[in-house]
Amino acid sequence: MTSTFTPSVLAPTRAHLPDGIVALCQRAIGEGWLLGFDFDGTLAPFTLDPDESAVSPTALPYLIRLSRSRGVAVLSGRSVEDLRRRLPSRLTLIGNHGAEGLPSLSATLSHRLKVAHETAAHWRGVLAERLMDTQLRLEDKCLTLAIHWRGHSAPADAARLAHGFATSLTPRPQLMGGDMVLNLLPEGLPDKGQALRHLLDIDNLVGAIYIGDDHTDATVFRCNDPRIHSVQVGNRRLGAPLRLSSRAQVDAMLQVMAAALPPAPEPPVDVVWPFEDEHD
User: Fold this and answer.
1) What is this structure's pTM?
2) What percent of the chain has pLDDT over 70?
3) Which of 42, 101, 182, 260 has the greatest count of CB atoms below 10 A from its CB?
4) 144-167 average pLDDT score
């Protein structure tokens, strides 16, 4: 599937964004900040089946244009392999909540990653049997796991059941709640906040804007780094100083940022799906 996007027709949707967020978007572009995003619930609307998640078609052309001249990073609980199938090239992809996709740290983390992989495999074997006939869905991300219950007939009961299964595991996982999901992480892995700071350090960048929506993004929101300017989607108190009322406003932010880029003649963008073809 291919669609065409013409950069010259960009116009910011300022009416849908608070003035402070519009100014932040323009500053991020003007000062060459890293542009960081969560995936599910931020770039991609939630779906009943996580395998069907895709970047908002409104956001995608702006994301591609921004990636041509600015650093764009997606930090997700998904694996890097999974993200590659859903996102265009040129983006920096950090998976497993910050533990995967930082090549300059691979040697330092090699032992911890090996242990995490073995631990997650052990948990997977235990949970695969326990979750049968429960309407709970187990997602295996190699280094971490997630138990999903979106669409469950009794979500509160499902959440308690998932928590009970998770806390019975040995070694006990670090638990990170989410929107109809419980993430299970081995101890000792980098989080999203550490990963984002590392990206700033290795490229010697002066700042970053980061947009996320969930508890999994709180390690960025609360990392207390003056270079990082966080924006949260939704009304939960997760530590971000700025908030958006809906995921659709993320698309508006991308539009404002793309419109703030210096004008440059360029051909229309052909958006090709699936993205794995781009990475080959």
Assistant:
1) 0.86
2) 88
3) 42
4) 94
